[in-house]
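Notes for week 9. Today we move from apo structures to complexes. The key idea is that a small molecule is not decoration. When we ask for a structure prediction with flavin mononucleotide present, the ligand SMILES becomes part of the input, just like the chain. The input block below holds both the sequence and the ligand string. Read it once before you look at the output, and try to guess where the molecule might sit.
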Amino acid sequence: MNIFDIGFEKGSITECIVTTYNEDMSPNAAPMGIFTLRDDMIVLRVHTDTDTYSNLAREKCCALNIVFDPYLFLKTAVTGQGDGGKENEICSEDIIRKTGVNAPVLKEAFAVIEGELLGYKKYTRKDRYRTSEVAVAKLKVRDVRVLKEFPRAVNRGLYAAIELAVDLSRGRTVSKDRYLKVMKRSLRAGEYRRVLGLLESVEIVEI
Ligand SMILES: Cc1cc2nc3c(=O)[nH]c(=O)nc-3n(C[C@H](O)[C@H](O)[C@H](O)COP(=O)(O)O)c2cc1C
């Protein structure tokens, strides 16, 4: 099995939750866009002020989790951002430790890809919001495993949550009401309330 078998396509970007170990071996998780180069080669463009970057640079590996949970995308994007693992966005009950590389796997994952860092180059990126440093990291796919049955019916709430998570992780709140409206209409009531509770508990600093 390779990453093409689970929906990755050469030249496209797939949203995964990247899991790594912090220095104290607590687990870290963050959504990241994965660019596919080949069936066994991927690229991450990771901001160097994130824990994911520090952990990847130190451990030289990570796990890419395929998940469909709107709450998890939001939670891991808006909490514990670049804090050196002080505030854990996930805890040891959320993960499976036994993997082929030194990285945890989310219990929620429908599939997992184990990646080994081959190298990275840093560059400075300027957009209209900020200037930031990004590492372009090339990874070799070491293993691909399907953990749960895959087919998932489309629910707009997931896509709304992912788009909102992207905005909030960049300090932009203008789209919040619009995406919450989609989630309110499409998610289960309990799931929506959980998302609302999360968003009420975090402070997003507008850039
Ligand atoms: C769908 C999605 C994709 C993202 N892709 C990236 C990415 O490719 N590179 C990056 O540096 N941050 C990306 N982010 C933002 C990080 O997930 C966010 O900054 C996160 O809090 C970093 O956490 P960490 O410090 O624990 O690594 C993305 C966020 C979302 C919601």
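Helices lie at 51-59, 70-78, 156-169, 176-186, 189-201.
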